[in-house]
Amino acid sequence: MATMTCKLLVIGAGPGGYVAAIRAGQLGIDTIIVEGSRAGGTCLIRGCIPSKALIHAADQYAQISAHAGKSHLGIKITEKPALDFAETIAWKEGIVDRLNGGVEALLKKAKVKQIYGWAKFKNGKSCDVETKDGLVTITAEYVILATGSQPVELPFLPFGGDVISSTEALELTKLPKRLVVVGAGYIGLELGIAYRKLGAEVTFIEADTRILSAYDKELTAPLQQSLGKLGITVHLGAKASGWQDNKLSFTDNKGAAQRIAADKLLVTVGRKPNLSGWGLDKMAVDIEQGFIKIDQYCRSSMKNVYAIGDITGEPMLAHRASAQGEIVAEIIAGKKREFNPVAIAAVCFTDPEIIAAGKSAAEAKAEGIEIIVGKFPLMANGRALTMGGGDGFIRITARADNHVILGIHAVGPHVSELSGEFALALEMGARLEDIAGTIHVHPTVTESFAEASLAALGHAIHI
Ligand code: FAD
Question: How far away, in angstroms, is 45 Cα from ligand 1 center?
């Protein structure tokens, strides 16, 4: 049995843990990171990156197929394209492998020791790890917990066989002919739309009366319409109840019992933090509403034990985890930092894409803030039209008194790339006049951001 000591021990090499470890290494902190699976975590191995690769391939295939049909661009493709799905998945794996190698190399460059195996805590500052070379006991002065999350399983639809989670949905080597998705949140919608574009028949079963119920109705309406155009069936207000002989039983919104056949049943009903199986019970760490309780410095209730990323609550997003990781490493190095963002933008990489950054009008009103709202339709944006899409809008919510922007929401093709500008505006406390007064490049979709600000001020130019 080997023993190791270090100043900082990071558990989990997802976007939270690996960023924390790299920053700590850069700051000269003697750091060990322990990862049970592969460096990169959920995001890089079975989440953000592989899903976006699949979405890209699906978009390409759908576009080329459209040109082989009746192309309005004058492009003539005489034969319908063929899809080698196993090759698509292999290409996606190539990207994942490359990024996984990149993370390992960055950790090495920052002089972080990487230990591969599942950590099990014996007490607050020391854990055992079963590695391929035997048992290692690691003791540290500081600990960062970054064990991430996993898909929620429904007791009546346990994962296994043809009942799959997002993890398996990103690893299929054969395209399912019929895919049924339980849960129309962002993960289910992203994957369901991609599979539809690749040629599968896709049906959603959603218990809520709307898709993406965390977002406001105006924002999700273009996506709801798009699902219809893509030929995706959506059962809202429907409750799945069981799976037998490759048929899903559900009750529709009128209370009628139905059964639907599928080759694969994808269950995407949320994610839960990884809090068990690694000795959390051996630590004096408080839990609050199902997550590790942290303060604005990401400190847990136990001295020198920090927690970051999905195990600490919503929004369970990679960029939140990474931001927390960087801050905690700097705090441990003695810098004065705290995690207190104005907004954490969330993007749904659906078709069309959706961005929510900051407060919606309803949220601001609920807080008693008097607001003004400006909205600019992408139909009036030249660049959006030249890219073949005009559906969607950018909407800004600002304080009525001083015009400080409170929230920015957008829906439309390719809008995800605007999320950085939105987050920057909110973080810097921009007013409508700041955005309207920034010269945005023509022709770009970003011009619509300035136009939405002008609309809120009452004098948009292009509408
Ligand atoms: P994780 O990435 O989950 O990493 C935790 C790591 O800890 C894992 O590698 C795990 O193996 C390891 N671990 C756990 N326990 C132990 C232990 N005891 N010992 C050793 N290692 C351990 N987010 C976005 O921001 N944008 C997106 O587009 C996006 N798309 C997504 C698509 C899908 C299909 C999914 C599933 C998720 C997506 N997410 C997206 C969410 C994102 O992946 C997570 O928010 C993010 O990965 C959280 O980072 P983390 O570091 O907290 O945890």
Answer: 8
**How far is the C-alpha of 284 from the C-alpha of 275, rounded, in Å?**
13
Over 90: is that where the pLDDT of 1 sits? no
Cα–Cα distance measured from residue 240 to residue 447, given in angstroms and rounded to the nearest whole number: 44
Closest CA to 162 of 50, 262, 271, 51: 262
Per-residue pLDDT band at 72 (split at 50, 70, 90): confident
Catalytic residue list: 442
Q: What is the pLDDT of residues 184-238, one digit of tens each?
A: 999 999 999 999 999 999 999 999 999 999 999 999 999 999 999 999 999 999 9
322 CA: nearest ligand 1 atom: 51
Q: Residue ranges of the domains in the chain?
A: 2-150+273-332, 163-269, 346-457
Kindly state if the Cβ of 192 falls inside 6 Å of ligand 1: no
Query: What string of DSSP letters covers 119-158?
Result: EEEEETTEEEEEETTEEEEEEEEEEEE---EEEPPBTTB-
Give the span between the Cα atoms of 343 and 358, in whole angstroms. 5
pTM more than 0.90: yes
Considering only CA atoms, which of 436, 403, 412 is closest in space to residue 355? Answer: 412
Q: Confidence class of residue 175 from pLDDT cuts 50, 70 and 90?
A: very high
CATH architecture of residue range(s) 2-150+273-332: 3-Layer(bba) Sandwich (3.50)
Evaluate if residue 390 carries a pLDDT over 90. no
- For residue range 260-305, list pLDDT tens digits in order: 999 999 999 999 999 999 999 999 999 999 999 999 999 999 999 9
What residue owns the CA closest to ligand 1's atom 3?
A: 148
**HSE-up of 401 (CA within 13 Å, CB side)?**
3
Whole-number Å distance, alpha carbon 16 to ligand 1 midpoint, is 8
369 exposure class (CB count in 10 Å sphere: 0-12, 13-18, 19+): middle
Which CATH number, 3.20.20.70, 3.40.250.10, 3.50.50.60, 2.40.10.120, labels domain 163-269?
A: 3.50.50.60
29 lines ligand 1 (CB under 6 A): no
pLDDT recorded at residue 69: 80
Tell me: pLDDT of 70 over 90. Answer: no
* Whole-Å CA distances, 75 to 63, 70, 72, 79, 197: 11, 9, 8, 12, 19
CA of 321 to the centre of ligand 1 (A): 9
346-457 CATH choice from 3.40.50.360, 3.30.200.20, 3.30.390.30, 3.40.50.2020? 3.30.390.30
